[in-house]
Amino acid sequence: MTDVAPEREAGDNYRLSGLRACPQPPGFQADSPGPEPRITDCRSMSGPLAGKVALVTGASRGIGRAIARKLASAGSDVAVNYYNSYDEAESLCVELRAMGRAAHAVQGSVGIPESVADMFAEIGKHFDRLDIVVSNAASGVLKPAMEMSLKHWRWCMETNAFALDLLAQRAVPLMRDGGRIIALSSLGASRAMPDYGFIGASKAALESLVRTLAQELGPRMIRVNTVSAGVVDTDALRYFPNREQLLSNFRERSPAGPVLSPDDVAGAVYLLCLPEAAMINGHTLVVDGGFCISG
After folding, report:
1. Alpha-carbon distance 93 to 90, whole Å?
2. What is the DSSP string of 224-258?
3. Which listed residue (52, 70, 143, 203) is catalytic?
4. Which residue is catalytic, options 14, 82, 83, 196?
5. How far apart are CA 132 and CA 277, in angstroms?
6. CA–CA distance, 272 with 130 (Å, rounded to integer)
7. What is the pLDDT of residue 234?
8. How would you list the strands of the sheet with 132-135, edge to edge?
9. Rounded-to-integer distance, Cα 212 and Cα 222, Å
10. Which of 32, 161, 166, 176 is placed for a possible disulfide with 206 were both Cys, Cβ 3.0 to 4.6 Å?
11. Residue 77 host element (H or E)
């Protein structure tokens, strides 16, 4: 493993794509007498998130990809953020467009203010509002804390925690009717894990920032929450030297089942985006099959 793990996308404006006539009932004739057929946006009938637009960072693979798919299947258009995986991001956009959604790949490094500004400028070319922001992109260094440097600390903190604030600052002005901001965290925010010290600290900072933003943005009808996932076997997990041990421990201790999938995490994000979750704010929703409660 290299000294500094490569930046991972572990897994973060709306413009109608065009109003069109909905399908007419059998027997309808366009030249029949009576009023003109009503023109509307047919996506209003396509799911609980229809008419919404979401930004998912680190969406080209893993958990981010599953989240983008889930939100699109519920009716949302999606801005698909990626860092260096254009082909995967574009293939996801093709998939989402096949569902009837507007989807656009947007490159950007979420921990760098100038890159986030460029990212939102690109988003603005396709959408003029945002309803959902999922801060999923993450990066870090897997080494003992005693071997870490200031560079490592800044890397973890800027990409995993500061990024949420950068995204919120840009996204909130576009959330004119309220919205949802959801950050992805991990069990390492509250548990000591080998070689995970700086990443865990950044995730703890992220969860604290979520609570602060929830308090600040609540009066604007913007709900801010965290989804904290257990051990999910994605590409990112392959960088962990103890990957097999992590998976084995999860299988042994999770009472809800031996495997936690990206779709399980995406389902939790989706739940927090529903109108029924309007009074959930500043909360950390743990998705781990009961792993944490099992000794």
Report:
1. 5
2. EEEEEE----SGGGGG-TTHHHHHHHHHHH-TT-S
3. 203
4. 196
5. 13
6. 16
7. 85
8. 103-107, 77-82, 53-56, 132-135, 179-186, 222-229, 284-287
9. 12
10. 161
11. strand 77-82
Instruction: Indicate if 196 belongs to the active site.
Output: yes
Distance CA 206, CA 186 (A): 10
Are 81 and 163 in contact by the 8 Å Cβ rule? The answer is no
Q: 39-288 adopts what CATH topology?
A: Rossmann fold (3.40.50)
65: number of Cβ within 10 Å = 27
Q: Please, which residues bridge with residue 134 across strands?
A: 56, 182
Structure tokens at 63: 């958990």
Active site residue 86: no
* β-bridge partners, 182: 134, 225
Give me 8's structure tokens.
């991972």
Residue ranges of the chain with per-residue pLDDT less than 50: 1-45
Q: How many residues does the chain have?
A: 295
Q: Which two tokens stand for residue 97?
A: 């467009």
Element spanning 119, H or E: helix 113-123
DSSP states of 34-60 as a string? Answer: SSPPPEE-GGGGS-TTTT-EEEETTTT
Amino acid identity, position 42: C
The pLDDT, as a whole number, for residue 23 is 41
